[in-house]
Each structure stands twice: as C-alpha cells, then as structure tokens.
Amino acid sequence: MGRASKREEIAEAAFRQFHAKGFNATGVNEITKAAGVPKGSFYNHFSSKEESALEALSRYGRSLRFDMLTSQDRPPLERLRAHFEFLSEDLLENGFVRGCLVGNLGAEVADHSEEIRTAAKRGFDGWATRLRELLTEAQEEGDLDDSIDVGTTALFILSAWEGTLIAARIDKSAAPVEAFFRTVFGGILR
After folding, report:
1. Is 1 within the bounds of a domain?
2. Positions of the chain with pLDDT under 70
3. Nearest partner of 47 among 7, 98, 92, judged by Cα
4. Are 166 and 99 in contact (CB under 8 A)?
5. CA angle 33, 35, 37 (to 5 degrees)
6. DSSP classification of residue 171
7. Considering the entire predicted model, what is its pTM?
8. Are the CB atoms for 100 and 162 separated by under 8 Å?
9. 131: closest CA among 181, 83, 73, 61?
10. Residue 97 lies in a domain
11. Under 8 Å CB-to-CB from 36, ≥6 apart: which residues?
12. 140/128 Cα distance (integer angstroms)
C-alpha cells in the first residue's frame, strides 16, 4: 500500500507561512517543518517554492469571502461594508502581523517572478471587478450617486484597503482601518 499524499498539508502550511512571514522569509524547510513532513515531500508535490506560492494565492483568494459581495441578503453597500469588516477582523485578531497575501507577494516578488505578478494582478483585477459590480448594483438601486465612476471608485477602494493594511501593520494600530471606514463609507459612498 502506497503512502498517502501530503500535498494538502504542505499547501496549507505554505499558505500559512507565506501569509505570516512573506515569500523571502519563508523557506522550504519551514514549510515542510510546519506541515510535519520531510523536505523531499515538498518536491513530490511542488516543483518550486514559487509554485507553492501560486497555490497559496489561490487558497487566499478563496478565504476572502467574496460570497458576501454577491449574497442578496442585504443592500449592496451594506454587503460591501460587511466584506471589509470581515477582512479587518483578521488583521485585528492576528495582532497586525498579516496583511493581504496578494498585496504582500505582489510587492515582494512581482518584480522577480512574472508568474506571481500575473497571479497577483489576476487576483486584484477579479476583486476590483467584484467591487465594481457591487457599486453598479448600488447605483441601480439608487443607493449610490450616478455621477460616481464605479470602475475608478472600485480600484480606489481596493488600493485604499491595501494601503490601510500596510499602515495598520506599521502602526500596530486600528487607526488606519478606522480611517478607511470613515473615508470610504462615511464619505465617498455616502
């Protein structure tokens, strides 16, 4: 009888390590140690650390709860706020040590890895599209001024969120998160 695959354990450990420590500070040894497997097991499932980072980006995208944006249980702008409140809880609960994995890897590795840059861009583009669609829905329902350019605003909100995560991690404070909510939901989208 053959041994069970350890791919899931390795992929999950890589995701956690990259999210907590970044790409360059995470080695294959740390990933396999966190997964509780021998180092050789890593290369049975991933050809490189970069390939495991691509898998981590995919896992991270699934953790962002985009379903909150499309659920019809409440008005569009309430769903948008709930989405960012959900994301801010992770930051606060983890002591400001983890930001957005897409943004982190994009900033850290995109200049050196076209595959990671492309995956990060695809992630951001998909997220911005979801935000744009939600803002369009809010306009159609009369909850958002028709003069607002939803594409530009969606990109701005996403960019502001990424900056918020960086500032909160640097400050070790919720003040940037509070400023994001005041500015976006109390100003721009009011």
Report:
1. no
2. 1-4
3. 7
4. yes
5. 70
6. H
7. 0.89
8. yes
9. 83
10. yes
11. 9
12. 18
